Amino acid sequence: MSIGILVIGDEILSGRRQDKHLSHVIEALGQRQLRLRWARFVGDETAALIREFRAIRDRGDICFSFGGIGATPDDLTRPCIAEAFEIPLRRHPEAQAIIEERFGAEAYPNRILMADLPQGAEIIPNPVNRIPGFRIGQIHCLPGFPNMAWPMMEWVLDTYYAQLNRDKPAEASVLVHGVPESVLIPWMNSFTARHPDLKLFSLPRFTENGGTEIELGIAGNETTVRDGLAEIRHMLDSRGYRYSEYK
To answer: Among positive and negative, which fits the CA dihedral 169, 228, 243, 181?
Structure first.
């Protein structure tokens, strides 16, 4: 099951703020033996957000969406995800009670709008200021503020997706010296066709003396990676290519 993130906000795309979510999500997933499969960055644009949410819904991916769940006019996550799922916004009783308790009379007329969630949504508790996020299907909508969003995301992972911590992901590679990447492409195509359960990667780079080297590796579970790396070494040995272990 693919896991991805959607980071929302014009301020990210303009550079007024720097994204911090991507690196943290990768780390948090890795601690749970999970892997991030995709990431999208989208501005505060209704049509684009609806398209993204609809595509995620159709794929059935697990998604963590950061930003846009406030009550200002540029907070578009709630209405856009409702439109993508073709369901109305409804005032969520539990979210309403939390906001009323948190702000009292000042909850109205504006802050209470954060309780208008897609019909059928479940709330995600916020341990910082208590204003909840929400989930609809497998899309989890969180604040843009890292100090709130990150513990909320980790709560979701541990509450709803603990069963995904199955095979420990593994990755291994070798450093191939002085071989053009193009020479290895036919073998790469053959390898990936024979091993659909492994993800092959090839990362060429220039060395300080003007030469070339390639980090050639694979990702998968521990057993398949071990066997796949042995096959890579055998191919390199049989062709007389020079390589070293990548650390």
So the answer is: negative
* 3-state DSSP percent of the chain in helix, strand and coil, to 5: 45, 25, 30
Domain count, the chain: 2
Tell whether 175 and 155 lie within a shared domain. no
Q: What's CA 36's distance to the chain center, in Å?
A: 5
Secondary structure of residue 111 in the 3-state scheme: helix
Final residue of a structural domain among 104, 134, 164: 164
Name the amino acid, one letter, at 50.
Answer: I
Q: Tens of pLDDT along 10-48?
A: 999 999 999 999 999 999 999 998 999 999 999 999 999
Lowest mean pLDDT among 58-62, 101-105, 115-119, 222-226: 222-226
Tokens encoding 65: 């969406």
Of 164, 192, 207, the one marking the end of a domain is 164
The predicted structure's pLDDT at residue 166? 60
CA distance 75 to 152: 19
Task: Kindly report the average pLDDT of the chain as a whole number.
Answer: 94
Helices (H) and strands (E) in the chain, counts: 8, 12
* Domain span holding position 87: 3-164
Residue 218 tokens read as 């694979």
Residue 80: both structure tokens together: 């856009």
Counting beta carbons within 10 angstroms of the beta carbon of residue 93, is it exposed (0 to 12), middle (13 to 18) or buried (19 or more)? exposed
Measuring CA to CA, how many Å separate 99 from each of 93, 95, 141? 10, 6, 17
pTM over 0.70: yes
User: Any idea of the CA torsion for 234, 236, 241, 245, to the nearest 10 degrees?
Assistant: -90
